[in-house]
Amino acid sequence: MLASPTQSRPDPDPAAPGASPRRRLLARAAELARDPAVRPQLHLEADVRTWARIDGPDGCEAWLVGWPPGTATGWHDHGGASGAFTVLEGLLEEHTPAAEPSRETDTVRLPPGGPHRRALTPGAGRAFGPHHVHDVLSTGTVHAVSLHLYAPALPSMRRFAAHGGLLRLVDVEHPGAWT
């Protein structure tokens, strides 16, 4: 059984002086998502996730992702890159362990009762550190579209599989796998 979902809200002023690097990354993602020239760069397919690499701000790697209803990323991390994503259209749900690991690890413990769930609606976003492990799902009845920023650029994506109350590393993908 999963924990109760929570609703994510945009930070009132994530770009304020003294804001954390994560908040600044989220603010950059939200700003880029508001650019009317961005969304047309992604072509949606009926049954599979699609993505397009776009120009990111300040040297960040940026991606638009299209999510048909019911699709998911599977459990993964971002190979040591910090990141942020924001929802442009549709509904996404992020599943996470109870806490972000403090270092890169091959095994992550899930909390009793299952992963934490966070609902993300248009305009909502999420920022995370370099060891964040999550699974993101499209939970609505229409395509979702999200914008993702990574700093530094993604060196890899490490894939995990759930075994009982643990997530165990099962694969490592390198940039050629998704570009």
Please write out the topology.
Layout: E1 5-7, H1 21-33, E2 50-54, E3 61-67, E4 82-89, E5 92-96, E6 107-109, E7 116-120, E8 125-128, E9 135-138, E10 144-151, E11 157-163, E12 166-173
Structure description:
- The protein is globular and about 45 Å long.
- 32% of the residues are buried.
- With 179 residues, the chain is mostly beta strands.
- The longest helix has 13 residues.
- The chain has 1 helix and 12 strands, in the order βαβββββββββββ.
- It has a single domain, classed as Jelly Rolls (Sandwich).
**Could you say what the CATH topology is called?**
Jelly Rolls
Architecture in CATH? Sandwich
How many alpha or pi helices?
1
Q: In what range is the share of β-strand residues?
A: 35-45%
Strand element count:
12
Distance between the termini: 35 Å
Low-pLDDT segments = 1-12
Main sheet summary: 5 strands, antiparallel
The structure class reads: mainly beta
Gross geometry: globular
- The whole-angstrom Rg is 15 Å
Overall domain count: 1
Question: What is the CATH first-level class name?
Answer: Mainly Beta
Key structural traits:
179 residues, mainly beta, Jelly Rolls, 4-stranded mixed β-sheet, 1 helix, 12 strands, disordered N terminus
Task: Give the structure's gist in a few sentences.
The chain has 179 residues and is mostly beta strands.
